[in-house]
Design a protein that fits this description.
binds iron/sulfur cluster; TIM Barrel
Amino acid sequence: MAEARDEFTIITTFNCNWDCSYCIIDTHERNKKNPISKEMLLEKIYNVTEGATVSLSGGEPGLIDPKTMEKVFEHLVKLNCTIDVFTNGLFIKRYGDKYLQYIDEVLYHCVETLDQEIEFPDMDEEQVTYVIIVTNDNHHMVDDFLDKYPHISFKLACNMKHGQTLNRGDAFKLFMRNKKRISEDSFETLFRYHCDCNLV
Ligand code: SF4
């Protein structure tokens, strides 16, 4: 039987160019109290095991400086890791041309106010998951946003930072209106927020 691959979800930085009210990482607060230096990031990267599955998260990984990013990818590629990236699009803008070729999956997180265009990575469709975090403040904008991108099956998700931030009644109506054009697992992620990742 094949051995299970180790999994690492690495917070690469607490810097972020956005300031989402629902940020579960509390990235800006943590950046003030305990920022992640490039040495700290590289230490995490050098602890990754051969052939592991590695998710690069943040903050926004696109804000890592180019030299450090090069070391990150050099090492992970050498270890033959499967690499995923969580981004709000900045990573794609800044580093897509150089590093998307090494990435297995992009988890793309749309802006909270749903008023910015999507940054499309140059990858196969099945390698990208487009996520909209739905809250009481933005649920009424979701239909129009979906209309703009009829070719994308968005994943809708709730968030539990301050308890349930999406009224269940509104969530249900939203789901029923759009169930034919959103991802199949949106029901699960809209109503049952959970996080089983192992953040380091
Ligand atoms: S883009 Fe992500 S990391 Fe940045 S503030 Fe929003 S939720 Fe937090």
